[in-house]
Amino acid sequence: MQPMPPSGEVVFTGSGVSLDPGPNWEQHYTGSPSIVRCEPTLVGVGEFNGGFIWGDVHPLGTNVPNLESAVGRLRGGFAKNSKAINGSFKEEEFTTDSGLHGICASFTQADGSGANLYQTRHFDYLVTNAQGRCVDIHYMAVAGKESGAIHRMIRQTLRLSKDPHD
Q1: In which band, very low, low, confident or very high, does the pLDDT at 131 lie, cut at 50, 70 and 90?
Q2: Helices (DSSP H) in the chain: which residue ranges?
């Protein structure tokens, strides 16, 4: 499927949340979303080239019953990640402009190898949807190229989707 530019609100299928990324993003669909991964993946273009945003939802009954458990799971994964940069894991609470409360966990990891070694920054915006499931809106970019404008966009436009079955 050809990438499409977003036209307003983008709903991450099955997550129950949406955001409005504005220009410089393309929607990419694989045609095979999983139980956890939601479509689309947003791929940055122009000034946001190298940025990616996607959604994951943790089904009811999993070992992620709340935001604190989700952060704990991320922290545990960080500790086991041989690519993670020691001491880079951070977390902070946030509230979106729509009143959605959440926790943003972030970390840096080394990717590539040899002369092609680089670092990526990962930001997990964790919220709870209307069904009580934990949703992770994940923003990833090459370290040093992450954008404050993208963080502002997420915090300003992330909201429960209008259709709670999305």
Answers
A1: confident
A2: 67-80, 148-157
